[in-house]
Amino acid sequence: MKPLSKEFEETLENIDITKIPPEEEPNRQYYFIKKMREIIKQEEEMLGRPLTCKSVCIGCQMNARDSEKLLGILNEIGYHETDSEEADFVLYNTCTVRENANLRVYGRLGHLNSLKRKNPHMVIALCGCMMQEPQVVEKITSSYRFVDIIFGTHNIFKLAELIFQRKVSQKMVVDIWPDTEKIVEELPSDRKYPFKSGVNIMFGCNNFCSYCIVPYVRGRERSRKPEDIVQEIRQMVQDGVKEVMLLGQNVNSYGKNLDPRITFAQLLRQIEEIDGLERIRFMTSHPKDLSDELIQVMAESKKICRHLHLPLQSGSSRILKIMNRKYDKEQYLALVDRIRQAIPDISLTTDIIVGFPGETEEDFEDTMDVVRRVRYDSAFTFIYSKRTGTPAAAMENQVPPEVVKPRFDRLLKEVQQIASQVCSRDLGTVQKALVEEMDDHDDSMVTGRLSNNIMVHFPGDASLIGEIVPVKLTESHGFYYMGVRAEE
Ligand code: SAH
Ligand code: SF4
Ligand code: F3S
Questions:
Q1: pLDDT at 186 (0 to 100)
Q2: Does 64 contact ligand 3 (Cβ within 6 A)?
Q3: 455 exposed, middle or buried (CB, 10 Å; 0-12, 13-18, 19+)?
Q4: Distance CA 380, CA 455 (A)
Q5: For the chain, what is the mean pLDDT?
Q6: Which of 56, 58, 60 to mutate to test the pocket of ligand 3 (most atoms within 8 A of CB)?
Q7: Residue 339: CB within 6 Å of ligand 1?
Q8: Hey, which of 62, 67, 156 would you mutate to test ligand 3's pocket, going by the most ligand atoms within 8 Å of its Cβ?
Q9: Closest ligand 2 atom to the C-alpha of 324?
Q10: What are the backbone dihedrals phi and psi of residue 87, each rounded to the nearest 5 degrees, phi first?
């Protein structure tokens, strides 16, 4: 368990748990954290051993950040993190963006049930995007009765209260909010890496791309106040963070609902000023409203990394229109030109969907054409997955798998071929790498991340982890480099 922050402990000391819980947040949660600490202590005394927890996270960086917050709460109330699902508290933070993410969760539930039969103290909790879908909750509450707690994406801050409810009621607790205006600040979080961290700058999505479930499960767009974001990052830097990843479904619409209004580019300027912070990344940037102001800020910045994830989805203007992406092929290509002109060494990556309803061979060729022209460093390629409740799921011209699969394979091959050429462009140069971990295969080597998001393996030991060091890139292996440490 991580040492607790002194201020947090002082706040908890002032909370009286013999009284009824306060209404306002985050004090209400502090109250339940303190209550739960007592309950966990009693259980530990009764069992004569520490209580353990395991948190599993599926999905995007937004979910990963949520899981850090959830684990932070579990730690504060006294659970000890373990690697195994044979734990006293197992939490699955779920994703529903594609069908296979859902199947994975149902697949795991049977296994969890068998573990629970052996350990009657075990608590199973499910949360995240999948739980925001009424048909999923219905299925779990009727067919998976051994699940103890179900909550959604809007009330993760309530975890301590929900566990408390479960412990006192002995009944399944289901708490799903359809949407929220609320952003609860100042709760604990347990970061995966001491030297880098995700930072939410906004929640939800208003774009309603016609294939996508995210706006339905994450609710409407809400931006955090710039001062709260800057304060959080300052605190992180004090704790040793060197690199932040600013997170939002579309960071380019950051600040639109704030008073006073502020643009994402202006927020970046404020974050750039934070002393001790060395690298800034962000995702995701929707091409429809990526401003020239943002390109300029990136070009001038010393801290913003040379990497932009710019999801294409399709290269066909016809399909893009039906996808409701609000840009066409030519606008996307023109945007890429503007970015490359201002920041020649930038690495571009993307997301592409193959087999959207009605996609013809000609549409698909347009996607291939954009891929060949932009020459991405890497691309996440997805087979279109029908998500119930989205407009695209109701479209009649779904493309059969035997047509989609060969297209997908062709695209993947093209993407990989281009990537292996593009990714070697810095061969022979010296670049700074943030060392993230020991090399998986060789314990005399470490693995670091370059500004453009490519990994480099080079000789080094554990003392380098978390340091930013210059590395000469001596060999290119397509998606990664081998290197040696260079002089400062
Ligand atoms: N907000 C981000 C994307 C979040 S979802 C953006 O706008 O780029 C991550 C990726 O999943 C998307 O970019 C898309 O390529 C893919 N995706 C979303 N819905 C999908 C679906 N129904 N089928 C297949 N892929 C999908
Ligand atoms: Fe989904 Fe589109 Fe929102 Fe991204 S911008 S989360 S793809 S609806
Ligand atoms: Fe999945 Fe939810 Fe992220 S659906 S992709 S975890 S926002």
A1: 82
A2: no
A3: middle
A4: 17
A5: 95
A6: 60
A7: no
A8: 62
A9: 2
A10: -125, 170
Q: Is the pLDDT of residue 323 over 70?
A: yes
What is residue 384's three-state secondary structure? coil
Which pLDDT tens digit goes with each residue over 337-363? 999 999 999 999 999 999 999 999 999
Q: Which two tokens stand for residue 73?
A: 């709460």
Beta carbon of 162 within 6 Å of any ligand 2 atom: no
| pLDDT score, position 9 | 85
- Which of these, 52, 64, 188, 50, lies nearest to 123 by C-alpha position? 52
Q: What is the pLDDT of residues 306-315, one digit of tens each?
A: 999 999 999 9
Measured in angstroms, how far is the CA atom of residue 438 from the centroid of ligand 3?
A: 29
The predicted structure's pLDDT at residue 1: 35
In this prediction the pTM is 0.95
- Amino acid identity of residue 288, one-letter, is K
For residue 94, which amino acid is it? T
Ligand nearest to the CA of 61: 3
pLDDT digits (tens, 9 = 90+) for 247-302: 999 999 999 989 999 999 999 999 999 999 999 999 999 999 999 999 999 999 99
Q: Give the SS3 label for residue 135.
A: helix
Q: Is the pLDDT of residue 196 over 80?
A: yes
Structure tokens at 52: 């353990």
Q: Is 327 exposed, middle or buried (0-12, 13-18, 19+ CB in 10 A)?
A: buried
Check residue 181 and give its pLDDT.
87
| Ligand 2 pocket check for 391: Cβ under 6 Å | no
Burial class, 136, CB count within 10 angstroms (exposed 0-12 / middle 13-18 / buried 19+):
buried
The pLDDT tens digits of the residues spanning 35-77 come to 999 999 999 999 999 999 999 999 999 999 999 999 999 999 9
Confidence at residue 159, expressed as pLDDT on a 0 to 100 scale? 97
pLDDT at site 178: 92
Indicate if ligand 1 lies below 6 Å from the C-beta of 214.
Answer: yes
User: In terms of Cα–Cα distance, which of 190, 191, 183 is closest to 154?
Assistant: 183
The stretch 408-428 carries a mean pLDDT of 95
Gyration radius from the chain CA atoms = 24
3 state DSSP class of 255: coil
Ligand 2 centroid to Cα of residue 299, in Å, is 26
**205 alpha carbon to ligand 1 midpoint, in Å?**
12
What's the 212 CA to ligand 1 centre distance in angstroms? 6
Q: Ligand 2 within 6 A of 205 CB?
A: yes
Q: Which atom of ligand 1 is nearest to the CA of 207?
A: 7
What is the per-residue DSSP string for 281-344? EEE---GGG--HHHHHHHHH-SSB-SEEE---B-S-HHHHHHTT-S--HHHHHHHHHHHHHH-T
Residue nearest to atom 10 of ligand 1 (CA): 351
The preferred substitution site among 58, 67, 129 for testing ligand 3, maximizing ligand atoms within 8 Å of CB, is: 129
